Amino acid sequence: MSKLHYAKLALAVAAAISAGITYAQEDVSKKDSSYNITTKKIVSNEDPSLKLMEFSKKTIDTMNTETSKEFMRNETVLNVSTFPMKLLQKVSKTNWKPNPSRPIAKRDMACYFEVPSYREPKSYDVNTTPINIEADDVEGKIVGKDEMLVYKGNVIVTQGDKQIISDKAEYSSISKSIKTIGSTLLSAPEYTVTTTDGADYNMEKKTVKFSNSKYVMNGSVYNGTADEFESNDADGTKILKVATLSACPISKQSWHIYSSSIEIDRDSSFGSSWNDVLFLGKVPVFYTPYANFPITNKRRSGLLPIEIGYTSGKGLSYELPIYLNLATNYDATVTPSHDAKRGDYYTLQLRDMPFKNLNGQIEGTVYTNDKKYNQTRKEEGKSSVKRFLLRIEQNLSLLENDLNVKLDYSKVRNDDYTYLSDISQEDVAITDSSLVQSLSSNYIQDKFDIRAEIRRYQNMFSVYSVSSYKPFALEPQISLSGYDTYGPFSFRLDTEVTKFTLDKVRDDRSNKLQFLRTHAEPSVQYHIYDGYGTILQIGGRYFITHYDQSDLSGLPERYQTRLGYMNHEDSITRSLYHIEAKAKTTLERKILDMRHTQTLEPELKYNYIPYKNQDNIALFDTTSRYDDYYTLFSYRKYAGLDRIANVNAVTAGFTTRILDPHDKEKFRFSIAQAFNFEDNKVKLYQTQNLRNEPHTPIEASMDAQPVEQIRFHIASQYDPDKDVLRNFNTTINFKNQDNLTLGTSYRYYRLGNYHVSKLTPVDVRQIGFDMSVPLSHDYKIFGAVYRDLEQKYNIDKKIGIKYEDCCFAISLLYESYMAMDWKNLVHNQDKFFGIQFEFKGLYTVKAKGISDPNGTGTHYLPSLDLTNLNQ
Predict the structure, then answer these.
(1) Is the dihedral of CA 439, 443, 447, 448 positive or negative?
(2) How far apart are CA 312 and CA 173, in angstroms?
(3) Which residues lie below 8 Å from residue 84, measured CB to CB, with a gap of 6+?
């Protein structure tokens, strides 16, 4: 028997015996009972005191970072001995990575500080990759026919990207295995296993076995225990016997799943388990004899989170979505549902990607018997019907994404005019209360682009309604734009040809009206000076538009007022020109502590367009435009081509900003006004009274973040001639590091609404409040209320309380929002109660009918989100 002793041995054994095991620096191909050992002693000449000083500095720097301070705010962190491991990992610059398929949520990071980092698995051959062993001491001995090596102190067995770490290990030439004694850790890229009973690594079979083990999925919330854990690197399988699984932190497991056996195959995206029992605490609540679960992001058919809600006075509503993985490029979601007010309905969503450059979805909703809708039909002497909505969206990209084609088609039953007002539908394109049915394409190159669209509408109102007008279809609209530069000149040409159609205006369905508009707009800009924050330029453009509108004679008389023309004229050609001059500069100075910067950005622009009578041109797609700071500098006073207003005005404005020492914007104020040298004579509608004043209202806005916790926004429009505030809105938001959020908003718009019963113009005066208050680390209360002060009714109000830890979350919710009764012209309230329950990493039961169950967003208004000054 021989012994070898080395102190501080860094690299010990890499040998090969009869099975062909390869040791470091020694290639043994003989298949007999002999073995060879090569050992090295690593000697460092580095002064250890220098390394200690560097390490201490890194530790202090790391402890002073915001990330470390956030960890230290968690009271449980300081009492957990594994927290220094997280700190050491940070100091050693080992970047912690989340698991790509089951990451830890940002909010819960402090609960999982002991979870090792995820690493990308390496591909290597387990039969040829050498096994390296490091230890403080190693000795060799022969016991009978067994040739053994004994490693002691900081033993690390490495092959590829896996390591086994222990204080003591023994290698046996007979069993071709390495056995660790005492506390042992297996570190793999995707998981970590620990035990106090040692492990058995069979180098011939490529298996490692643990007993009474604990495991953690690296970078993930998942962890558990197993009486027996076996990992086979040869076939990539893992088998766990008498095992548990939980997504709760190891130190606080409110729920876990017990399984008699779990099998995971590396070549499969799913694992299998038998005799599964869900425990809440120590109480079993659910049993299944078999389960199949994902271990990657690969999709699989199954039940998605359900939604349950209660409508006051109506009863329960629910949705039961079932996911179907039809193929790698096709899937579907079938959702049987029940609405307390309307009855049963079914939704099918089919997503497709038949080719790499073609994708989209087809979605349909069917109400088999809408109780509320059919009751109304019964009162009108009509029979009951089914209600449905079909939506198709497809996107095609060709020529390296230069050519893009999109289909967006929505349809309901032909006479179901109230579908959209009765039933909320997400992502449905609507124009003038009509469903959009569009096929569009665009081709974009460096110096030109081409756009084409065919667009029709399904009217969502009765054709006999005297107060409703159908929008014109585009069949088709083709646009071409070209642009280039030459020295200080830039050129652009915009052209458009649109065929407008309108059908079923009268009882005759075949009475299809057609109109043609052709437009060209060449322009040139001369850049006199452009540098050092200063711009000087002049330019001009020419408009020429031809209309063929002979079919106006086929419209009912009431359309004449709606389309804004005075007399019917079959063919009209309009030509105009525009001249502009622009100057802008940016001035800077240091202020406050001489580290902050203030800018002053004055801007002037002159626009001129002569007057031309356009009273006999119909309004096909043109409307009025809301003015703000930026639109005051535009030559367009109307949105669309059918009206080009005469302009002879100078617009003056300036913006000032304050930047902090890191050039982050903390304050912005803008103000502008246009001064008119002549009155606008171009009316949108013939009944319109033009507002002819020497200057426009003053537009002003301000955004500021005076401190990190507070942001506010103010915008207003003031008419100095009439001393009238036309509109005003403001929003203030407070949020601190403890996630206390408070917000308020106010909106005023002069004569911007109608009285609900009198249908007369009234002001918009609406106020809103929202808040989210953490009661403790795990509890918060949140809510919002929005009220119309002018007509004295609540638009929306919501309140919720939520408990959330790293294991599960539960929310109690209530929301009441305005539901308009158009028949009786009164405001009603729809009231919803809901409970949302989430087993993190397992399953969620959602609250149906409640908007934003985790925050302050409501049915009508999202959470306050002020302008980010540094976007």
Answers:
(1) negative
(2) 75
(3) none
pLDDT at 871 over 80: no
User: What is the C-alpha separation between 754 and 584, in angstroms, rounded?
Assistant: 41
Tokens of 258: 């017990």
How far is residue 180 from each of residues 169, 196, 336, measured CA to CA in Å? 4, 10, 55
| Token pair 């009973």: residue | 197
| Residue 368 and residue 386 in contact, taking contact as beta carbons nearer than 8 Å | yes
CA distance to 188, 234, 500, per residue, from 202 (Å): 17, 11, 78
Cβ atoms 794, 785 nearer than 8 A: yes
Residues 360 and 409: their CA atoms lie apart, in Å, by: 12
User: Which pair of tokens denotes residue 337?
Assistant: 């549902």
Pairing verdict, β 255-265 and 403-412: unpaired
Instruction: Please tell me the distance from the alpha carbon of residue 96 to that of residue 103, in angstroms, as a whole number.
Output: 12
Integer Cα distance of 170 and 230 in angstroms:
19
pLDDT in tens, 540-584: 999 999 999 998 888 877 788 888 898 888 999 999 999 999 999
pLDDT on residue 26: 30
Distances (CA, A) of 264 to 115, 294, 653: 21, 10, 67
Cα 337 from Cα 345, distance rounded (Å): 5
Cβ-based neighbours of 130, under 8 Å, separated by 6 or more: 14, 22, 23, 24, 159
CA proximity to 532, closest of 600, 585, 488, 604? 585
Look at residues 269, 274, 333 and name the one whose alpha carbon lies nearest to residue 306. Answer: 333
Single pTM value for the model: 0.78
Peptide bond into 249 cis (omega under 30): no
Give the pLDDT score at 4: 34
- State whether residue 720 is helix, strand or coil: coil
Biggest CA–CA distance in the chain, Å, is 117
Q: At a CB cut-off of 8 Å and minimum separation 6, what does 551 contact? A: 513, 514, 515
SS3 at position 376: helix
Residues 6 or more apart whose CB falls under 8 angstroms from that of 67 comprise 90
Q: Which two tokens stand for residue 623?
A: 């409307």
Judged on CB neighbours under 10 Å (0-12, 13-18, 19+), 397 is middle
* Pairwise CA distance, residues 650 & 641, whole Å: 22
Q: Are 271 and 295 in contact (CB under 8 A)?
A: yes
Q: Is 864 helix (H, G, I), strand (E, B) or coil?
A: coil
Inter-residue contact 363 to 352 (CB < 8 Å): no
For the ranges 103-107, 231-235, 426-430, the maximum mean pLDDT occurs at 231-235
φ, ψ for residue 89 (rounded to 5)? -65, -40
What are the percentages of helix, strand and coil residues in the chain, rounded to 5? Answer: 10, 55, 40
Crossing angle for the helix pair 48-63 and 83-91, to the nearest 10 degrees: 110
In this prediction, residue 90 has a pLDDT band, given cuts at 50, 70 and 90, of low
- Distance between CA 766 and CA 744 in Å, rounded? 11
- What would the two tokens of residue 239 be? 């088998």
- Name 364's bridge partners: 348, 390
Backbone angle region of 841, left / alpha / beta, with phi > 0 → left and psi within -120 to 50 → alpha? left
Contact 277, 287 (CB under 8 A): yes
For residues 789 and 765, give the distance between their C-alpha atoms in angstroms, rounded to a whole number. Answer: 5
Tokens matching residue 229 = 């854990």
Distance CA 71, CA 63 (A): 10
Cα–Cα dist 179/160, whole Å: 19
Asked if 739 contacts 780 with a C-beta cutoff of 8 angstroms, the reply is yes
Cα dihedral across residues 856, 861, 866, 871: positive or negative: positive
Nearest alpha carbon to residue 828 among 314, 367, 365, 381: 314
- Helices 83-91 and 66-73 cross at an angle (nearest 10°) of 180
pLDDT computed for residue 687 by the predictor: 82
